[in-house]
Amino acid sequence: MTSPEIASLSWGHMKVKGCSTNYKDCKVWPGGSRAWDWRETGTDHHPGVQPADLEEVLKKGVDLLVIGRGMSEALQVPSTTVDFVKQKGVDVRVLQTERAVAEYNKLAGQGAKVGGVFHSTC
To answer: Given 18, 61, 75, 103, which residue has the most CB atoms within 10 angstroms?
Structure first.
């Protein structure tokens, strides 16, 4: 299975190729995607992305995870979360969302087993 391309990104809207759903925030992995609902784990801009937000994508067998912090990088990513990903043997890149989507799409286009979590607003 390949990682799906993120077909479009604008403030508050993301579209994943092959999926009819429009997302505000999303999780993607080889063979799938879904909405990233922060309420599931109690995530907020501070303290930011929690390991629980990433477990689902990591279980899909990704080699690399890209985290999009938002258009203005308001979403924090604690070092403990980055360490959690690395301890799973997965490389992680934390970027502003537009740059994160570009990096994710480049890697997906090269056939990498890449996953991502992306925040499309602030």
So the answer is: 75
CA-based R_g, the chain, Å? 13
Instruction: Tell me the pLDDT of the chain (122 aa) as tens digits.
Output: 899 999 999 999 999 999 889 999 999 999 999 999 999 999 999 999 999 999 999 999 999 999 999 999 999 999 999 999 999 999 999 999 999 999 999 999 999 999 999 999 99
* Dist. CA 65–CA 39, nearest whole Å: 21
Stated pTM of the model: 0.96
Angle made by CA atoms 105, 117, 109, in degrees to the nearest 5: 15
